[in-house]
Amino acid sequence: MLVLSRKKNETIVINDSITVTVIEIRGDKVRLGIEAPKDVTVHRQEVYEAIQNQARSEDPGARTLKP
Fold it and tell me: pLDDT tens-digit profile of 29-44?
């Protein structure tokens, strides 16, 4: 895992097509802005896991990908 430090309004770039910007820091919460191509899905981990669990329950034999 790569760990980076960023301040408010600073950005990181992933693979020339995804940017992650620190929008706000309030207490122990950080708001991020993510710009990605339309063909790239972006989910919070708990949402991603819920989608994967639903897919598994609909088709128990299907393989799911890890993020």
Answer: 999 999 999 999 999 9
